[in-house]
Design brief:
Helix content is 13%, strand content 36%. By secondary structure, the protein is mostly beta strands. The chain has two domains: 30 residues; 147 residues, Ecotin (Immunoglobulin-like, Sandwich). Strand 5 and strand 6 form a beta hairpin. It is extended.
């Protein structure tokens, strides 16, 4: 490798351009939809247990919930360019928490409906997980807060088929949309001269 001032300058310029491209991608592609975008409010949700299950035409191929599990169905509205959206899913429980950071333990598994190839997601149990061990000065600082399991999920937006989840009773499913607001940027290796 030639370490002439010209090659050093080319390398520095290429590295800077790469860093700016990566930063730009993170800023433009990783933000949730704007509050004035009402598509998130149009997502319909249904929850069924083994005792109140009602087979839906659009999700009849998915198994009925078993005892101890709830079936959560998210039906997504059609969007103009669905390739520009992601659906983020968090699963957890609302708990009283103190000043420590907490997560719950639970394994998010992906299953396939036999004969259909459609995917659904299941968490069989949620238990207490890791927590920091800071000494909280005031007990009255406890508050109710959503505590997620460690696994989270980002799915490509697809309104053609409902998203189906099976979760333990007493758990919650939270979701939000992410939208890409920028175009792709290119990072290319610069040609280096070898002697």
């Amino acid at each position: 490798m030639n370490s002439s001032p010209l090659n050093i300058a080319k390398h520095a310029l290429t590295t800077t351009a790469l860093a700016i491209s990566l930063f730009s991608f993170n800023v433009l592609a990783n933000h949730s939809t704007q509050p004035n975008d009402h598509s998130e409010n149009n997502i319909t949700t249904q929850t069924f247990t083994a005792s109140n299950y009602q087979r839906q035409e659009t999700t009849k191929m998915f198994p009925a919930p078993t005892n101890g599990l709830e079936q959560h169905i998210l039906t997504l509205p059609t969007l103009d360019d669905e390739s520009n959206y992601l659906l983020e899913i968090q699963i957890g429980q609302t708990k009283m928490v103190d000043c420590n950071q907490q997560v719950l333990s639970g394994e998010l598994m992906e299953h396939s409906v036999k004969g259909w190839g459609y995917h659904y997601y299941q968490v069989d149990s949620i238990n207490e997980g890791a927590s920091t061990r800071m000494a909280c000065i005031r007990k009255e600082s406890e508050k109710e807060s959503f505590v997620p399991i460690q696994d989270e999920l980002k799915l490509n937006y697809d309104s053609h088929l409902a998203k189906v989840f099976y979760l333990p009773k007493g758990s919650e499913l939270r979701y939000r949309l992410w939208r890409v607001d920028g175009s792709f940027h290119t990072s290319k290796a610069s040609e280096t001269q070898t002697n």
